[in-house]
Amino acid sequence: MDGISLSIQELLDDNEYGLGLALLAGQRGLVNRIFSSRIQKPGLALAGYTEHLHPDRIQVLGNTEISYLNQIDDRLALECVKNLCSFPVSCFIITKGLVPPAFFLETAEAAGIPTLSSPLQSSTFISLITRFLEERLLPTTHMHGVLVDVLGVGILLVGKSGIGKSECALDLIIRGHRLVADDMVFIKKKVPAALVGQSEEAIQHLMEIRGLGIINIKDLYGVSSIREKKIIDMMLELMEWNPAQEYDRLGVDDKHITILGVDIPHIIIPVRPGRNLGSIIEVAARNFLLKGMGYHSARDFQERLLSRMEVRPLGNEVE
């Protein structure tokens, strides 16, 4: 199976989400991979109905499943467990710190299926592990650029090397806006359709300004000048001014670019001496906020222009 995945060992090693996992059996299966953020409760599968069993998902056993195995005939229970373990199950996780029957652990061990235990209630554990898997299994990418928070709008500045992205971001920081990432932006897709950008840990809060070298924005301007991560709302591409190229002068038709399957507004800003890019980007952020409130300046101008053309009186005809 292709796609982003993580191993059961990585799940077992997690300390951030407080899953509290411990290994009970199936150590050799810790290399098994998880590809889906969805989990499954295998109650019906234990009872023999495996039609809708998804072996690639983590199988969570709570009080209902363990009680069922403890209450039915031992021979039948063993048969049910062997039937379940005949599938390539990625992992069993038993909640509430419950102790499964010995034959369950022996069968899982023989099948190489890692069996973990968590002290958490089933509902709490399912909520936490779903968030964990969604965070770890969503698509990611890296882009060369600068990410800034301008008036609450996440703006990704891109353009060829040396065009002035960092200098532009520095101007915005001096105006009171915030830096998220410089040079390399780590982007992760979040459900349902959002992009979250942040800096690589090694260069967090740092910015390269040609002629000055590396500067630390947090040390220079304080914690209010930086953000750890930010949803990317739009992309602004800085491009050298080309007199032979036609640039959008009205902005009636919004352009978009797709990153990790998510469409975000894409604006090309021509760069030449005399243009105050910091002010232009700040206005772009304000205009984005206005559009979010339902007001589109360019389309309003177009509608007023068309309205005037429709009501304009005809001149006297010359005979």
From TrEMBL:
The active site is at residues 144, 165, 183, 249. Residues 136-304 form the HPr kinase/phosphorylase C-terminal domain. Residues 207-216 are annotated as: Important for the catalytic mechanism of both phosphorylation and dephosphorylation. It catalyses: [HPr protein]-L-serine + ATP = [HPr protein]-O-phospho-L-serine + ADP + H(+); [HPr protein]-O-phospho-L-serine + phosphate + H(+) = [HPr protein]-L-serine + diphosphate. It comes from the Bacteria. ATP binds at residues 159-166. Mg(2+) binds at residues 166, 208. Gene3D superfamilies: HprK N-terminal domain-like, P-loop containing nucleotide triphosphate hydrolases. One of its GO terms (molecular function) is kinase activity. InterPro entries: HPr(Ser)_kin/Pase, Hpr_kin/Pase_C, Hpr_kin/Pase_Hpr_N, P-loop_NTPase, Ser_kin/Pase_Hpr-like_N_sf. Homohexamer. The Walker A ATP-binding motif also binds Pi and PPi. Both phosphorylation and phosphorolysis are carried out by the same active site and suggest a common mechanism for both reactions. This is HPr kinase/phosphorylase. The lineage of its organism: Bacteria, Pseudomonadati, Thermodesulfobacteriota, Desulfuromonadia, Geobacterales.
